[in-house]
Amino acid sequence: MHAIRLNAPNDFAYVEVPCPVPRDHEVLCRVEAVSICGTDPHIINGDFPGVWPKKFPLIPGHEWSGVVVGLGSESAQFGFHIGDRVCGIANSGCGYCRMCREGRFTLCENYGREGIHSMYGHISPGAYAEFIAVNIKSIAKIPDSMSHETATLMDAMSIALHMVMRSGLEPGDDVLVNGAGAQGWMSILCAQAMGAGKIFCSGSGARLDFAASLGAVPIDYRSRDVADEIMQRTDGKGVKRVMECTGTPGGVRTACYAAAPGGAIAAVGFPSQEVAIPVKRLVMNEISFHGSRANPGTLEKAIVLASRYPDALARMITHCFPLSQYAQAYETFTKRLDGALKVVLKPQIK
Ligand SMILES: [Zn+2]
Ligand SMILES: [Zn+2]
After folding, report:
1. Residues 193 and 286 both lie in one domain
2. How many domains does the chain have?
3. Which residues are close to ligand 1, an ion, with C-beta < 5 A?
């Protein structure tokens, strides 16, 4: 089969590789569509040496959708059949450690141990390929009404949903979505679906315009102090829930100053350096700060919520390329050429 193989940092090629064979609890899927994630350029650049990937070569890609074409010996008894339309996530926990048994499999105690844990497209072979073998724990069936292109967005949407749930959002709560990228857009949709009050979104340019088109109140961080603006628009109270998606030191501090007393911040972004945060403000106002890691148990929930937003999700995908044109797709995504938001690859189109 053909795949994009990362041989070393910034050295990838469209090559022929052996087709994987599914193990007992795995299925073989024909990849119909795979979306470029914001993490992929970091993996390709070699920003996580020895971690993602642990070693080269690696087939990246983890936001994918496809069709089951082969079954491991145990997969059928769990309800998977040839022809099932499915989408996938990156993490497959060992299933047996304490964190997995508590449902927190993205914190698996056997993380990275080959053979019992997988992280597709990061450590284990991913979906920039014609086929992928995946554990049935890390896929979900999609409805006929959902296109494979939209289904590639369910990984990102389920990550945002976990963050919104980690924030403790209750109906009517005002929200700041800090950062207008894919996690920000998905957070807006999830917060809306869960009954949020006003949803503010900080960002700039076309990506902030897109957030506004989803129904958020836009705040341009280049021309305004986001926390000040939040205070002005909430009678000095702040917002009950902040989704921190910028992963920048300034963004993290903004989150801390925009949160209301008794409120909470949930964060998916992580700065590459340590950040000074106003602990006194957090303590004296009982503001909690929750790390939020990937999508434990939220994939099926996200697929249900997504059915409310077919147009918004379809508009997020601005470009489609055959997998063989990955280099062009990658440039379009990383340089945000031609209004690029989400960029999708189609491995079955030659
Ligand atoms: Zn991703
Ligand atoms: Zn585990």
Report:
1. yes
2. 2
3. 37
Q: 154, 299 in Cβ contact below 8 A?
A: yes
Domain range holding 273? 157-291
The rounded Å distance from CA 32 to ligand 1 centre is 17
Sign (positive or negative) of CA dihedral 228, 234, 235, 237: negative
Which residues have CB under 8 Å from 24's CB, separation 6+?
Answer: 72, 73, 74, 75
Q: Calculate how far, in angstroms, residue 62's C-alpha sits from the geometric centre of ligand 1.
A: 6
CATH code of the domain covering residue 175:
3.40.50.720
The Å distance, Cα 237 to ligand 1 centre, comes to 34
pLDDT tens string 72-129: 999 999 999 999 999 999 999 999 999 999 999 999 999 999 999 999 999 999 999 9
Please tell me the pTM assigned to this model.
Answer: 0.98
Q: Indicate whether 278 and 337 sit together in one domain.
A: no
One domain for residues 63 and 124? yes
Ligand that lies nearest to the alpha carbon of residue 105, given by its number in the listed order: 2
- Whether 152 is in a domain gets the answer no
